[in-house]
Specification:
Arc Repressor Mutant, subunit A; 3 helices; elongated
Length: 98
């Protein structure tokens, strides 16, 4: 996904104004879908990093490295591993330390 483009590609100026507007609408609708997909996949990764950082008392960069290494070693997509970690954590009993 190329996130650097924010304008639709140039159109042939011989087309009608309505066709130009439709072209722009398609472009921005596609862009919105791409951004939503990226957001949907990034949030679980951030949550998993936080879980690992808290669990192992490491910073989030080390947590990401741990998650990435695990995924490479087990041929998993990082988003799938993150979701599994979140789901596992949400059903586990919570311990509170004072």
């Amino acid at each position: 996904m190329d996130t650097t483009k924010s304008r639709p590609p140039a159109l042939d100026t011989s087309g009608s104004e309505l066709e130009t507007l439709r072209h722009h609408l398609r472009h921005y609708r596609t862009r919105a879908e791409q951004l939503q997909y990226a957001l949907d996949h990034r949030l679980p990764i951030e949550q998993a990093k936080g879980i690992l950082a808290e669990r192992y008392r490491i910073d989030v960069d080390e947590a990401f490295a741990m998650l990435r290494t695990f995924c490479r070693d087990h041929n998993l997509k990082i988003h799938d591993a993150a979701r599994a970690l979140i789901d596992q954590t949400s059903v586990a009993p919570r311990r509170v330390a004072c």
